[in-house]
Design goal:
Helix content: 40-55%
Distance between the termini: 53 Å
Largest sheet: 3 strands, antiparallel
Low-confidence stretches: none
Number of domains: 1
Strand content: 15-25%
Structural class: alpha+beta
Radius of gyration: 19 Å
Mean pLDDT: 88
Oligomer: single chain
Length: 86
């Protein structure tokens, strides 16, 4: 269960970055680390070992972010707010 939350964060990062090579490690103390293979079986650690919630927050903030979806109504409302300010 613990690693499922971390795995889901890694999967989101892979989709956002379009890089399927991101991975994670978990040590015997239950700390997680984001890694990226660099070749010849070696991996680059992209962060220090972290607790689960800190790791998920780090991975969610790492790399390109997905733009927030905005509805047509929200866009029109924002335009009206700008007009009223002037």
């Amino acid at each position: 269960m613990r690693s499922t939350k971390a795995s889901a964060a890694i999967d989101r990062l892979k989709r956002r970055s379009d890089n399927p090579h991101y991975s994670m490690t978990m040590n015997s103390s239950g700390f997680f680390c984001l890694v990226l293979p660099i070749g010849a079986g070696d991996s680059e650690r992209l962060c220090e070992a972290m607790m689960l919630d800190d790791f998920v927050a780090f991975v969610n903030a790492y790399g390109p972010q997905t733009p927030k979806r905005v509805s047509k109504l929200e866009l029109e409302f924002s335009k009206q707010l700008v007009k009223k300010d002037h």
